[in-house]
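[job 0412] stage=complex_fold ligand=S-adenosyl-L-homocysteine status=START
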Amino acid sequence: MSGPPEPLRITGPQPDAPSPYLIEPENLGELIPDEPAYRATQLAGWLYRTPVLAADAVSNLPTGIRQRFGSHWYPFDVEIEQSADGGRTRKWLFRGAKGASIESVLMGYPRRITLCISSQAGCAMGCTFCATGQFGFERHLEAGEIVAQVAYAAAHLRRHGMPGTAPHLADPPHITNIVFMGMGEPLANYRRVRESLRRMIEVMAIGARSITVSTVGVVPGMRQLADEPWQVNLAVSLHAADDELRSRLVPLNDRYPLAEVVAAARRYRDIKGRRISIEWTLIDGVNDTPEQGVRLAAIAADLGAHVNVIALNPTPLTADRPPGDDRVARFIEVVQQEGGNITLRDTRGQDIDAACGQLRIRAAT
Ligand code: SAH
Ligand code: SF4
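[job 0412] stage=complex_fold status=DONE, emitting structure tokens
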């Protein structure tokens, strides 16, 4: 970028200038019909290739265009920004149209920087242990609202850096992994999630293999995603290894029972040649028993999947608690002894989790 940006004077919202993220990158010219075509290409570059925090940081576009998008560069406002773990965990609560809450969390590790994004405001799936599920469904996020979370975090990272990361990641600082593990069930918002993936992969040039879609088991969506051209990773949130218990924790299990979910995961693995992840949130006395561990190991070994366990992050509306460290260790031991591949994920940025209730993230493998 050349020189400091000119100061901008923005006079309130301009309702006739929607965020350019809400329009397909190929059609940006429609927003600036009086400008030569190369301006739309430049605009796409600032939105997707070298994203900026605000329109006034764009250096090579005419002031008129910058002013036009001044207060609407992103399709949301930043309502809360929090930081923990010495700046290595950052959480944002964005506020989209119609008051929709959108949460993203950025986590820096020594050798990777993972961004967790949301696909819906709220969630209709009603998993008993999940704050988002307890909160209910608000609305689907638009493709632009999903991909703009990635752009915003990338811009923030470029502007503020990431302490404690390997030099090859920090210069320039960039996101290495994206996980759909924030609010919402991505495969229940298939069309928009698909378009957000297309933009990430084909426009932002993010490697499909560095993106993980996490699902609670929306079987038709798992099948559709398997038939897309991209080698995106799939994480399947199982939480229980028999239908009776799973239906209690994950109501969707009544519609798509365990065997169908596992079959769809197997098909995904066979088509993509990518290892599936199984997500398992440990709840004290509920799904942390040796019996569940044995059954889980059988499923994981058969699928060749990797299990990520995390201790429950308690939510206000249930009495569920995370197991103590000894029970967690015992569960992991059982799964390993039975031939399952398993890792315990730490809960990142717990001191900033309170407001969010759910975004207790682990990185995708
Ligand atoms: N709807 C998708 C993706 C978002 S939830 C899914 O369920 O996979 C992302 C992950 O967070 C899921 O594995 C979910 O089980 C887990 N999760 C939800 N609530 C949690 C809580 N209170 N503590 C720990 N993990 C939780
Ligand atoms: Fe929705 Fe996932 Fe939460 Fe279940 S765990 S309610 S699917 S966000």
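The first helix runs from residue 37 to 49.
[job 0412] exit 0
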